[in-house]
Design a protein that fits this description.
11 helices, alpha/beta, about 325 residues
Length: about 325
């Protein structure tokens, strides 16, 4: 069973020796010797962007080379993901992805990339709950009150998401079905635009990741009704889980992970992973990630590969049974 909460030892360098000998000439130089482009397939302003910037600063310091973040949103993360899948496998274009990587193949009739064949797993960085948040003007002050309000206004209540296939979207869809309420899905191109409509009450609810939504909750701009994980969050200990507040069995946990193009040299993947583990162990970085409400993991590439397949096995049947499709 995949242990998602522990750091793991790197395998011996001797295991990589055959691959190192077979490397092309460009890969035999020390990596990295120039800046690394980190593609974030979401617009700026959301939780993914925040995680990317925290970890990228430390990795830049470790390498002495800048990790430059490129927000490349659109296509439910497919545009940015495809750009990395088709990039030169030299370790200088890498990807920070999340739940959409494991679910888009079930939501779309076709994708321009294969999430397993075209990407090399590096490390599962962290996981996190989402928060069910409503505008301060909402009449609902609890999950139960929200359900009652939605049932009293069938078809009129909307939920925002940062795009199709995100944990934000899937949280709302699962809530709709498990709570037995009618909600209209309003997808946005990222969390930032969604917040612009949620705060003034132009949409009724959003199940956004805890790091992005927490400042608005603490600042009195949004009201938290519940967290989507099976256990309460240490960052918002007074907020109940959605499961305990009215929807038994409800559990959605998001995650962030590093990937590189397939056929990236094993030594580059190994160093990228090892340095990521070092970055995540730094007390300052851990504190900043704690403030974003996430739980640090730092898995091996192999564990991330197994985790990605397990996520597909989890969400595939749910999406198919629910008949969720994106045209």
């Amino acid at each position: 069973m995949l242990n998602r909460r522990r750091f793991v030892e790197m395998s011996g360098a001797s295991a990589l020796a055959p691959a190192l000998l077979a490397r092309p000439a460009w890969a035999q130089q020390a990596w990295p010797n120039r800046f690394i482009r980190l593609v974030v397939p979401f617009p700026p302003g959301g939780g993914t962007d925040a995680i990317a910037r925290v970890v990228a600063v430390k990795l830049s310091a470790i390498w002495g080379q800048e990790m430059v973040i490129e927000n490349k949103g659109g296509g439910a993360t497919s545009i940015g993901t495809d750009a990395v899948a088709k990039a030169d496998p030299d370790g200088y274009t890498v990807l920070l992805q999340s739940v959409p990587l494991s679910v888009n193949r079930f939501l779309f009739a076709s994708l321009p990339y294969d999430p397993i064949a075209d990407l090399a797993p590096v490390s599962l960085i962290c996981d996190y709950p989402n928060v069910m948040a409503v505008p301060m003007s909402s009449p609902a002050r609890s999950v139960k009150e929200f359900i009652d309000h939605a049932k009293a206004n069938p078809g009129k209540i909307t939920y925002a998401s940062s795009g199709y296939g995100t944990s934000v979207h899937l949280s709302g869809e699962l809530f709709r079905r498990m709570a037995g309420v009618e909600l209209q899905h309003i997808p946005y191109r990222g969390a930032g635009p969604a917040f612009n409509d949620l705060i003034p009450g132009r949409v009724d609810v959003m199940f956004n990741n805890i790091g992005a939504v927490m400042p608005f909750i603490l600042g009195g701009k949004l009201r938290a009704l519940g967290v989507t994980s099976s256990k309460r969050s240490a960052s918002l200990p007074d907020i109940p889980t959605v499961a305990e507040a009215g929807v038994p069995g409800f559990d959605v946990t998001g995650w962030y992970a590093f990937f590189a193009p397939a056929r990236t040299p094993p030594n580059v993947i190994a160093k990228f992973h090892a340095d990521t583990v070092v970055a995540l162990a730094d007390p300052v970085i851990r504190q900043r990630l704690d403030q974003l409400g996430v739980s640090v993991i730092g898995s091996t590439p192999r564990e991330l590969g197994a985790f990605l397949k397990a996520e597909m096995d989890k969400w595939g049947p749910i999406i198919r049974d629910a008949g969720i499709k994106v045209e």
